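Hi R.,

Here's the chain you asked about this morning:
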Amino acid sequence: MLTHLTIKNYALIEHLELDFSRNLNVITGETGAGKSILLGAIGLLLGNRADSKVLWNAEEKCVAEATFEIGNYHLQSFFEEVELDYADQTMIRREVSANGKSRAFVNDTPVTLDIMKQLGSRLMDIHSQHETLNLGDRDFQLRLIDTFAGNGRVKEVYQQQWKTTSQLRKQFEQRQAEATAIREEADFVKFQLDELTKAGLKETEQEELESQVSVLEHAGDIKSRFLMIESLLSEGEFAIDKSLHEVRSQLQAIASFVPSYKTLFERVDSIRIELNDIRQEIDRESEAIEVNPDQLQKLQDRLSLIYHLQQKHRKKTIAELLEIQRALEEKATKSTHLDDELASLERQIVEAERLLMEKATLLSQSRSKVLAGLCKKLAELASDLGMPDALLKSEMASVVPGPSGIDLIDLLFSANKGIAPKPLQQVASGGEFSRLMFCVKYVLAEKMSLPTLLLDEIDNGISGEVAIQMARLMQTMAQQHQLIVITHLPQIAAKGHSHYFVFKETIAKKTVSKIRLLNPEQRIEEIAKMIAGENPSTRALASARELMNA
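And the predicted structure, written out as tokens:
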């Protein structure tokens, strides 16, 4: 249950701290005093959207903080699941900075807003005024039925199977679209792949071919220059090898005189050996050179093919062309196996849909079993709230499986004898809607283990004896759950275990919302004001005491 609430710098609230009782807490105050603001601040703790516009002082951050006692609500597994330290007294906090940025904390550990929402949904259920309109919504009615039936686990299993089936269908659609695209371009892929495969490209061949073509294109010039080098090295009176041989002989004659002469001799001898190797290498290269126009043409044709493919595919190297070839091979292979994959997915979808219908049928049967009991229970409660002729019926039809199952359920209502029940949004008045929504909350409270329920003016459109009966039912609810009720009815305010009064003050030319816990005498005065206005008469005060003591 909610034990302590702190709100700082939110809308008209400068600083507010509240301690709530374990049972029925009522909050009253004039219209515009700040009751809805209090609700908005609590909403921050449940993960609702934050906006820097709500800051009372734009230069300071807003803080909403609540302490809950949760020892009896079996939330340890949730804390483990989201990797948070569990404590029987858990504190959640939300901070909104002046720039609109928001931070969330659970027991002083930073958490995501999603985790805060998940935890908040396990700690508190808030009924706001606009939620009453949801009563006519089929999805809301379906959630009501599932809660009444205790379908939490059955529905979770169904939704997991729905998710699996939906993912398989999506995967099949993607593969089918892929297959269509591949088939449409299959001929083009095959043509490109055949062209590259037929080319038989090798990663390093372009450099080798360009080198060979360069040699063959200049074969005559290269050969003549090799011959000239050979002549300079070996032929004629002044051939290099003859002169070098003579230099070697001269140095050899004096090599024994001084060590440095011997070194010179060895160096010249080394040059002579190297020169001889060079000449032999030139001979081999010269003999290998052949003027061969046919071979040149063949190599040029091969290079032209490579250049053509590079230009066609807008690539600069053979390595890039080979990468394209591999990608085309993958597409071709994928096309070959795509039909098998689609057939496999179809088989998986058939099985998934069989399991989905199996689980949907279980969920549907569970709903069907409780519909009559739910309608009877709601009608009995409605009768207690001044609608003795209230009649609720249900219509149930099967539809194709969806996220919530295979059921289309309408709750039909009639408040008067002889009037056929019709869908709620067509026949219920505002007051009837409020009473019915309270009946729904009463039924749900019996089925849920939420620590705290907060009802915001769920008593709209009712008065008199009906209000007294609603107050009694609230007291019954409060025996199992902490109940916080924002009300404008004195009958309900009088039945609270704790009564809080919201009011406005002007401080330094600025309006501030405040709230205080009323003592018994203050409660009588406030309830009398709710009955008779700002200056209650002695009779109104007596009526207030009577309501308090009833």
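The first strand starts at residue 2 and ends at 10.

Let me know if you need anything else.
M.
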